[in-house]
What we know:
By secondary structure, the chain is α/β, with parallel strands linked by helices. It has a domain at 2-176 and 221-249 and 286-304: NAD(P)-binding Rossmann-like Domain (Rossmann fold, 3-Layer(aba) Sandwich). Helices cover 33% and strands 15% of the residues. It has helices at 10-21, 57-60, 84-105, 140-157, 188-199, 224-235, 254-264, 293-297, 307-319; strands at residues 2-5, 28-32, 50-53, 69-72, 109-112, 166-171, 173-175, 202-205, 218-219, 221-223, 242-246, 252-253, 271-274. The strands form 4 sheets. A 7-stranded parallel β-sheet has the order 3-2-1-4-5-6-11, sandwiched between helices. The chain has a two-stranded parallel sheet with strand order 7-10. Strands 8-13 form a two-stranded parallel ribbon. Helix 3 links the parallel strand 4 and strand 5 (109-112). Helix 1 packs across helix 6 and helix 5 crosses helix 7 (254-264). The protein starts with a strand and ends in a 7-residue tail after the last helix.
Amino acid sequence: MIVITGGAGMIGSMMAWHLNTVLQxxxxxxxxxxxxxxxxxxxxxxxxxNYLDKDELIDxxxxxxxxxxxxxxxxxxxxxxxxxxKLVQDNIRYSQVLWNWCAEHExxxxxxxxxxxxxxxEFGYQDDEAAIDQLRPLNGYGYxxxxxxxxxxxxxxxxxxxxxxxxxxxFFNVYGPNEYHKERMASVALHTFxxxxxxxxxxxxxxxxxxxxxxxxxRDFVYVKDAVAVMAHFxxxxxxxxxxxIGTGEARAFKDLxxxxxxxxxxxxxxxxxxxxxxxxxxxxxxxxxxxxxxRNTGYTAPFHTLEQGVQDYVQQYLMQTDPYC
Length: 326
């Protein structure tokens, strides 16, 4: 049995997709608490044994039989969340409870960290545990993920009970199917698609930093199918624990992403540049690029979709379909 928290979210539901379609497994328990009225549709195409509310999980764990792994994707993922008390409860305390249960019952624990832990990128984007304390996230969400990464490393360093395998995944800019419930926090790919269909043009942020032209802010955009394939790799590599970047290793411009969406629709690109919202000023990353050498050293050799390949699959196989869910 594999337990996926946040299993009705984008990455969680796509992890279930990978288990169903690539690994031919349906012994899955989905755990979540849905806040969007249409989020249930992320599960419509999935095969799984049971669905639990997040507050039911701990009581249910002894009843589930042999658990091969807990994949913990459930969290507040909004980078704009201002209530740090909520972030503590959902992103730290709940994760600590699951960590301790996995340690006690010798169950692998794979969880979502975030590239937001890298802050403005002043110290680079290497998933080096030894350098973690110098990172300075730009928002409370990023700090909540940083706190748990540091806590996990201290557990090991202090010889405290730890799961037999644990992996914290620093996701970069993930895009793809089943993100439709995320609204403002959805990827620029989805916003581009919706804006272009409604207005015939796409709005991107102007640059407010020297050295970056409008629309040329850079991100490591990773297709969600690649992200879950990396997680599945670690399910089969129990000897590897620690923090790992999940990105392509290649930064691309928002302008490139928007252009790929419009081109995938068979249309000529039309872009308008707008001012950045005040709540993002000073908290906005202008460059992210995952160092994936550590991932490659674990034996993961599969290629990643290029930006154009991933966007084309997303747009043509999902967004343009009557049923866009994977």
